[in-house]
Structure prediction request, 439 residues.
Amino acid sequence: MTQAVLSKPHADPMGEHLVPGSNISNPVMIEGCACEVTDSEGRTYLDLEAGPGVVSVGHCHPRVVSAIREQAGKLLQGPGRYYSTLTSGLAGRIAALSDNRLSRVFFANSGAEANEGAIKLSFKHATKTHRQGYGVIALEHGFHGRLSLPLSLTGNAARKKGFGPYSAFPGIVHAPAPYFYRSGAKNELDFGAACARSLEDAIKTRAAGEIVTMIAEPIICVGGVFIPPANYWPEVQEFCRKHRITLIFDEVFSGWGRTGRMFAHEHWDLEPDAVTFAKAIGGGVPLGGFMATETLGTAFDEGDHFTTFGSNNQIGMAAGHAVLDILAEERLADQAAEMGKRFVAGLKQLAITHKAIGDVRGLGLMIGVEFVKDRETKEPHPALTAYVQKTLRARGVLVSTTGVHGCVLRLTPPLVITADQIDHAIAEIDAVLHGAANV
Ligand SMILES: Cc1ncc(COP(=O)(O)O)c(C=O)c1O
Prediction:
């Protein structure tokens, strides 16, 4: 009996035995190449989700595939806590990206684990520097993962419902996000300054103990793609320095070239104490982690932090090296910047005709299109957003919907997307909106 069950292939192709809650639906995807995926019926789709945000180098990049194949024949998993040239080499290459300012690297499996580890590190640092508490500032609308601490840091109440204390780690204070479109403000810089100043209010009115850490996405992505005003991050960094707050950027989505720079915080010449990463660095296999300054990154004592697959996972390391090679050789951050401009310009053009498009915003290939029922009131239009996603999929284009109001179309294609594919995507969105008069 057991033997018969074990040898039965594809016993559950439609996911009947999976725990529900992951939004998994048809079609069944079986192959991917660059910006396209193919389903079990042989239909090909233009993928503007990319994993989401994982396959920045494209699906099954030949170099990633051959690095994985080659490593698979040598060593899959390190035996324990032994040095690996692949792991140390990748840490060295990642540290070199900041000219060794962020000189210490830790490897984990996912974005949630990366954030969990970086916060833990900042707490140990707080202990060692005799701080008076373990408070953390995060941003409303921010997303940091679905494990207990990352979920507590996440600024979206819908994600936390029903989990009680699991999603309410103590000491976390949420401050307003730089969401200009819905702020009601007239001037971006005034709004940026007010938003940065609200962190002082958060400390004075809501912090139970000393705030020692701030974690935020430099560009909030899952929350709806908010490009902050130019003065926001420099002022926030100033605030963190003044209060000796460890500043951690969650670059799980925005890292590895997606926004037109290797890391999004480079757009504002910032110097965070730590940066967390995951998604694209694995090229399609699980790999995450964080990098930190020498002082912060050496705060853990022996045995404080470790995960079985983190630095031992040699497939992830091999893939990570291949991804860094591809990012450099194919100049993918530059490509993202250029293609992002084309995509945003095309979408803004659509907004002239389609009044339901309330806002188009993006940096590189992290783009959001916000749908509203009325441009004056900005009433969110989640039904239209869902319709656009569904209809696009039926026409062979994959996109995500996001944001607390469910009214943002999120476009995060592989960075290898071509100009023709972008033009095709814009034409498809145009056609879908023309057919959506009664939604
Ligand atoms: C900014 C950010 N942080 C953390 C995460 C969580 O990453 P993971 O799903 O790998 O745990 C995500 C996932 O979308 C993310 O976008």
